[in-house]
Amino acid sequence: MTTSQLAAGCAVVLVDPRTAALPAAALPALRHAKEIYAAGLSPAERAELGAVECPPDLLELAAGTPVVLLCARESEPLAIALAMSGAPVIRFEHHALLDAVDVMDTLRSPGGCVWDIEQTHVSLRQYLIEETYELLEAIEDGDRAALREELGDVLLQVLFHARIAAEHPEAPFTIDEVAADLTHKLRTRHPHVFAEEGDPAVTDAVSQEKRWDELKKAEKQRESSVDGVAMGQPAIALAGKLAGRAAKAGFPVDLLPDGDTAGETLFAVAALARLAGEEPENELRAVARGFAERIRAAETRARAEGLDASSLSVDQWRVFWHTEDQ
Question: Most CB atoms closer than 10 Å: which of 48, 226, 276, 290?
Fold first, then answer.
C-alpha cells in the first residue's frame, strides 16, 4: 500500500512505555481519527487511552478511514506496516528542550556571554516577574504566537536559575534534579493516576483539589493553614489566597478585617470574592484592562477631532468617554 492509498489523518503514535502517556503532538491526529486502535498495550492501558485492540486487517481499514494506532514500540509489525505505507510516526521529542539547556550552559561557561555569567538569582528577579506578567497578558489576550514566545521566556528563567544553582559552592543542584523533584511531586500528588491501587478519595476535579491539599499538607508537615502561601504575590491575590486557606480551616467570615482603612476594605472585598468562588486578582485585572482600553478609545476619538489627547479638559473627557455609550 502506498501513501496515496491511506486515508488522510492516519498516524502511528508511540506512547510512553512506562506510563502510557501520549505525546502532545498526537492530539490533532487523535481528534481527527475515526478509530483509535492499540497494539502491544494491556487491556487496562487500552481502556485508559480509549482504544481497542488492533484488528489484523488494519491496513485495509486505513485505506478508507483515518485511523490512529497506539503502541509502545515502533517495532510493532502493524506500526511498521502503517509507517511504510506513509503514515507519520508521532513520538515524544525532547531534543529542543535539551538544546535549550545546552545553550544556557554555554552562555554561563568560560567564553560565553559576559552579561549572563554575571547574573545571580537576585539580579534576575525583576526579569522573572516581568516575563511572568507578559505571559499572563498573552493568555488574557488569547494571542497564541505571543503565548508561545512568552512560555519560552519563562522557560529561560527556569533554565537560567537552575544553571546558577548548579554553580553554588555549597548546595548545588541541577536542572535534572529540579525536573526529578517535579516528577516525584506530580506522581505522589496524583495517586489516583500513578498508584497501582489508585485513590478512592478522588472521584472528580473537586475531590482531586481537596486531596492535593491533604497530600501537600502531610508532605510539607505544615502547622498553619496559611503556611506555604507566597507572601510576595500581588496584594489582591494574596488576600484572596489567605482567605481561601483560612476558610478551609473553618475560619468564620465575621472575623475577616472590616475596618475603615483602604487596606482593610480592599482585603475584605478580595476575601469575600474568593470565598464566593471568584478570583479577585483576575476580576480586578479584567476591569483595569477594560478601563485602559476605554481610555485609549476616548483619546483616539479626541485626536480624530483634532484635539491634543494629553491635555483634555474635564468636560472634553466626559464627551469622548460617553461617546462609546451612545
Answer: 226
Residue with cell 481497542: 52
196 vs 177: CA distance, rounded Å: 25
**Residue 35: what are its φ and ψ, rounded to 5°?**
-140, 140
Sign (positive/negative) of CA torsion 124, 129, 135, 141? negative
Fold of 95-188: Helix Hairpins (1.10.287)
Measured CA to CA in angstroms, residue 165 lies from 120, 131, 171, 309 at distances of 9, 20, 8, 49
Predicted TM-score (pTM) of the model is: 0.67
CA distance 125 to 273: 30
Asked whether 78 and 55 are in contact (CB, 8 A), the reply is no
Give 99-144 pLDDT, tens digit per residue: 999 999 999 998 899 999 999 999 999 999 999 999 999 999 999 9
As its CATH architecture, domain 3-90 has 3-Layer(aba) Sandwich (3.40)
C-alpha distances out from residue 179 to 112, 154, 182, 234, Å: 25, 15, 5, 27
